[in-house]
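USER:
I wish I could look at a protein chain and see how it folds. I am handing you a single protein, as its sequence and its fold in token form. As I understand it, each token names a local backbone shape. I hope you can help me see how the letters and the tokens relate. The protein I mean follows directly.
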Amino acid sequence: MKDFEYWNPVETVFGNGCIRQIGEKLSGKYKRYLLVSTRSSRKLGTYDKVKEQLQKAGGEVFEISPVPTNPKMTNVYEGVHMAAEKQADCVVALGGGSVMDCSKIIAMSAKTGIDARDYVWGDADKDTQSIDTVMIPTIAATGTELNNTAVVVDRDQREKFWCYAAFPKLCFMDPELTATLPEKMTIWGIMDVLSHTFEFYMNGDMDSEFQLQFSEGIIRTVMKCAEQLHEDPQNLLARGELLWSSTMTWGTGLTKIGRGEAEMSCHNIEERFSGFFDTHHGGGLGVITPRWMLHVYQKRPEIFARFARNVMGIQEEKTVECARLGIEKYCQWLKKIQAPSVYKDLNPELEFDKGQLDLVAEKIWKVCGRKVGKLVPLQIGDIKSILYAGNESL
């Protein structure tokens, strides 16, 4: 295990119905809340419940337009303007990663007056000040509710990128909120959880046995929850297990402790992909991750053979063959839970032709400084091959 430092300051309240504690927990702490949410949270009544709790805490509540998948700079600027105009002293995010990331950047820019774009694409100070934020996730996915990063899209450049942000002050993790999700969105979020777990599990470092087994436990748990929720979307026990598992990876960062650099190929590829096509991030990872596995496993078969034996239950002595069988079984499992198979599953109205995919590959190559891949370094031709494969069924 490598040397490390670890710190996560986010107070977390977990449990079914825990959003009913918001009023008590925040009582008297803030005077003016900016509540950032999605359209679905308003339709389902969740927004009204949270707003009532914030008012119960003794604060005025203001809002901006609902934030879509892949938040744009226009959403951020609207929030910054509203927070400044109303002198908000807390930003509350109700929704998925898009809402939470958008809220983090709003809170920084509103506090400092620095152009929000400079945090992501400029040279703004990374040790930033911020208005306090409160996270209320409605999906188990990237775990951004417990970390200090945020992602946003430049609509004009059709480009998505990330920045550091301040840690949230408080997080309410209520499994009941995730039960309102359509099954498709639940599965797409699971693709994000698995991808982030793979990033340290499959980074090539084999010297941290506890961390390897920890990651395997997360993967097995998430897969089991996916199967349970495929059968019964209202299974709150599975939803709770899944929601907490999602924070073990990129959220709390526990899987990265002592593991060194992450294997970010899939996220580097997908973030440019969804930034270009405006498709769902988790759904895109569901398509790209198995293609990456199939493209690189023969160069580091021992990594994938361990996954095959310890997670997928493959009994095969030959390393390369074991790795292949494990990935094949994983792909079969993806079909079983109806994970997205090809790009058309993300948006059947879009065309994903090679010309556009070439543009995405070039963006990846540029943004990543011609360095993509920790386990197996990728060239631009490899990236294109992985992208092209997403148009064909596994």
In short: The beta strands are 11-14, 32-37, 60-63, 90-95, 132-137, 149-154, 159-164, 170-173.
